[in-house]
Structures are given as structure tokens and as C-alpha cells.
Amino acid sequence: MGRTRLDPSAVPTPLSPPAPPTWDGDAAGLICGYAFEPGGQQPVRGIDLEAARVRIEAQAQQPADGAPDASFMWLHFNLSHAPARAWLERHAPLPDSFHEALRETQPSTRVERADDLLLAIINDVHFDFGFEPSDISTLWVAVGPRLVITARARPLRSIDALRTAVRAGHAPQSSTELFEQLMRAQADALVGIVRSVTARIDAVEDALLAGRPDQQRARLGGLRRVLVRLQRLLAPEPAALFRLLHKPPAWMGEADAQGLRDASEEFSVVLRDMGGLQERIKLLQEEIAASVQEDNNRSLFVLTVVTVLALPINILAGLFGMNVGGIPLAEDAHGFWVVVGIVASFTAVAAWIAFRKK
Fold first, then answer.
1. Poorest-confidence range of 140-144, 151-155, 277-281, 322-326?
2. Contact criterion met (CB below 8 Å) for 207 and 284
3. pLDDT tops 80 at residue 316
4. What's the pTM value of the predicted model, to 2 decimals?
5. Is the pLDDT of residue 130 over 50?
6. If we measure between CA atoms, which residue out of 148, 328, 129, 348 comes closest to residue 229?
7. Secondary structure string (H, E, C) spanning the chain
8. How confident is the model at residue 29, as a pLDDT?
9. I need a labelling partner for 184 at 20 to 30 A (CA). Which of 141, 156, 202, 209 fits?
10. pLDDT over threshold 90, residue 74
11. From CA 94, how far away is CA 56, in angstroms rounded?
12. Which H or E element spans position 284?
């Protein structure tokens, strides 16, 4: 089964568009909720927490050997609302490892199986990403055959792109495909960041060629810190997902598993591009450092030459300035010019020594 990239503008408007969910007014911190009915007349529609709780309880009472149901739900929570965690613990059929991950202060990036669910702790950039290392936060994801739970504490760019596509009528055919498209949205967000960083690096390189290196060192340092942090936090995702897909859950179809592999490969390509940008920034920083070092050496050489040329007159001035008897040429009518000649001669010798290698 083919996979398409998220593009809300390219998705035709459904006959019955989903009702808009309540964004921030839900008492339990629900940002959005959707019920998907693949193959139905209304493949996606908005759902609130009460309806979601009823569906979860009904699914729990269905026999395990019953007819497979292709419908599933997606609930997206805001962890800044304190009741969100309580609702998840009380009503969502999630493993203890998911709740333990929510309590971690610095969760590590991972994708693993937990009680036949796919548990992912991934990182994403903030919606208002400002190229600061702190503009990265964690997204918690739990994927099952009939339920997808996502939770975040700060607005994130990739999950918002997925939510926008679903609101426009894009209806994934399975919970695994929804997670796949989340990864593709994350890769698209990284591609946008890479393009923006590339444009900034090009501007810095143009300024460097124009002879203004000192003004660009801080900009390059900030961009490199952002890329290093992004790569450090995001690099484990493809490898972890590849390890998981060697033995996928029984409910995950082969087409869905292959779609996740393709999304992981695309994600890995973006990460390699980020690594290439880091090397380019490193080379520019080294070139700027070499240019600054050359300017410093030139200034130090000029200072050394001035010091050497002033050495003879300073020595003679110090000697003749002593208030002692026996100073030569003190009574000579041409003593001043004799001393000037001596100083000029020593200065010329010092200048020759200083500039002979030039």
C-alpha cells in the first residue's frame, strides 16, 4: 500500500468534515480527539473525552477472538493540564512504562514495545521554533491497534502539522499509518529547519567573503549548538524504530511496518543532512578563526616593529636623562645633532633587522 506525505492542501475536502474539537477548554487537557472509520462514509470525525471513554470501555469488553475492527481513535493531550495524567491513568489502557515515562524529568529518546503496544518517547521542535537549543521538547506516543495516545507539555510543530492534516479530512487507514505520518511530519519539519539553516550559513559565508568575519562568529556558534542538540536528541529514533520493526507487534500489518521503515529511512537522510551542515559550520568557524588569527598576528608584528624602532631613543633618553656628572657632549655646541645622528643610525639598524625577512 502506497504512502503519501502529509499535505492538507492536496487532500480533498470530505463530504462530511469532522467537527472541530475543543482545543483548550477541556477539563482533562484534551487538545484534540478523532475517531477514524476506514472505509466508512465519514472516515474521520471529532470526538470528546466522554465519547472516547465509552468507546474504550466498549473495546475492552469485546472478545479477543471476535471479528477485527479497523476503527481506531487518536487522543492528543496537553500535559500542562494537571488532570490529563489522572485521566490517562484512570481510563486509558496504557502500560505502566508509559506513565513512568511521563514522570521522567529528562526522558531519553526511545521506541519500544510495551504490553503489545508501541511506546515512543521522541523529541520535536516547538511550534514557534526560534533556533534556540531550548526550543525542543518531548512528545510521548502510545500506539495500539485501536487507540493512539499522544501527549506533550509545549506546542510542537510536527504534531500540529499532523493535526492540521486530519482536520482537513486526511484519514489514515490504521493507527500505525497515523504514527508513520507523524514521523514524516517530523522529517518535513526538520527539512524546513535544514533549509533555513542553509540559508543562514550562505549569508554568513557571503559576509565572510566580504571581509566581515567577526560579526558572524556568534551566529555560527548558535546555529551549530542548535544542530548538535537536534541531532543528539533525534538521532536515536530511526535506529530504535528499525530494531522494533525486526519483531513488530502481531496486530501490525506488513504494509504498515514497511511504511514505518520508509519513514525511518527518510528521517535518517535528514539527520545526515544536518550532520553535513555541522561540518560546513565547523569549516567556516575554522576559516574565521584563521582569519582572525592572521589579523592578530599582523597587529602584533606592527606593535613589535614600533617597539623595536623606539628602543634606541628610549635607551639614550634614559642614559642622558640621569642627573650625574660626566655626561658626554654636554658642553659641545653640536652635541644635540650628534646624539640625533647616533639615534637615527641605531634606529635604521633596528629597522633593517626587523624588516630583512620581509
1. 322-326
2. no
3. no
4. 0.71
5. yes
6. 129
7. CCCCCCCHHHCCCCCCCCCCCCCCCCCCCEEEEEEECCCCCCCEEECCHHHHHHHHHHHHHCCCCCCCCCCEEEEEEECCCHHHHHHHHHHCCCCHHHHHHHHCCCCCCEEEEECCEEEEEEEEEECCCCCCCCCEEEEEEEECCCEEEEEECCCEHHHHHHHHHHHCCCCCCCHHHHHHHHHHHHHHHHHHHHHHHHHHHHHHHHHHHCCCCCCCHHHHHHHHHHHHHHHHHHCHHHHHHHHHHHCCCCCCCHHHHHHHHHHHHHHHHHHHHHHHHHHHHHHHHHHHHHHHHHHHHHHHHHHHHHHHHHHHHHHHHHHHCCCCCCCCCCCCCCHHHHHHHHHHHHHHHHHHHHHCCC
8. 86
9. 202
10. yes
11. 11
12. helix 254-320
d(C-alpha 109, C-alpha 232), whole Å: 10
User: What is the pairing mode between strands 110-114 and 72-78?
Assistant: unpaired
| Cβ-contact 36, 9 below 8 angstroms | no
Report d(CA 33, CA 39) in Å as an integer. Answer: 19
| DSSP conformational letter for 156 | B
Dist CA 48 CA 190 (whole Å): 31
Instruction: Please choose, from the candidates 68, 66, 10, 64, the residue with its C-alpha nearest in 3D space to the C-alpha of residue 39.
Output: 68
For 297-320, the DSSP string reads HHHHHHHHHHHHHHHHHHHHHHHH
- Tell me how far apart the alpha carbons of residues 195 and 281 are, in angstroms, rounded to a whole number: 14
Distance CA 72, CA 100 (A): 25
- More confidently predicted of 327 and 45: 45
Question: pLDDT over 70 for what percent of the chain?
Answer: 87
Query: In the block, which residue shows the cell 542548535?
Result: 226
Cα–Cα distance, 215 to 208 (Å, whole number): 9
